[in-house]
Amino acid sequence: MINETPSKLYPSLIGGAVMAVLSTMPIVNLGNCLCCMWIMLGGGIGAYLYWKKLPPDAEWKSGDGAFLGLLSGVFGALIGSFLNYFFMVFLGMGPDQDMLQTLLDNLGTVPAELEEALNSIGEGGAIPSSTVVLLLIANLFLDTLFGTVGGLLAAALLKKRSSQGTQQSRGRR
Amino acid sequence: MTANEGERAENRVILLFAGAALTGCLLFLSVPLLLNGNDSQRAFGAILKLLFRPVCHQIPGRCIEMGNAGMAVCGRCAGIYLGFAAGLVLYPLLRKRLSGYEPRLLAAAAVAPACLEAVLGKGLGLDAGNWVRLGTGLWLGVFLAWVLAPAVLDALRDLKLRRSVRLGNFDL
User: pTM value?
Assistant: First the structure.
């Protein structure tokens, strides 16, 4: 008998949206300071929502958890970059000045263009397109990495270990 | 492939991940040394510190100092990453013993000391200091590695199975 597996798209979209919103909201996003907690949570939520939709007799694999975490990370990076851009351009909330100042102090002599670009990021306002692309790449890297970790963690926690030490499908309660 | 060979191959994969984790640890550990160096070293150190910014608050009082510069991550994060790398290195030696434990139990054991320390710190105002935070982070990191390593191996086995089925090769 062939089991119909549920779509992975919606759980990962929800996971990605949770990841993006929590990671970009001012103050709340400080939770990411604890090993990208919100990113891992988003990946975990994507995996959990898929696990909940699985038929009771379907097998729950760690690979599914990892893939859902990864997919949530991709969506999280896309949505998060858009939200970041929105906050930076329309609300003038750039990265903190202290961090950029420390960077400029330690860089020594830097090209005027780079200094101008870093200052414009800190002040908000017009953001160079290269910065937007860099932010997207950085978000993609972090969100997919920690999202996958979150998905794997959810996969491990939703599985049950047999007395022989092998992992087995848990099914739904 | 015999079971023993399969296990050895899996151990090599885990050690590969451990190598990557150790490389990350070396990067954040090298930041204070670089920031105390010459101009180009300081520039490289500042860029490295900026790269670690998204994963840690980098509050100066929470970062363990080496020389007169702090690490690129706080004490707790440093502990988590170092512990994670150590846990992965130890996993091949302990995997048979660890396979008998529920992942949930390991996860609960992982977060217990850090939670206790946070509750004591925030609730009773007993600031444990950076070295205690490093210790609880180490504990968390080691157990996190022990929860994640079997899941990673399961995921890789699953990938291998899917690929073999697609290629019509069922010799697993």
Answer: 0.81
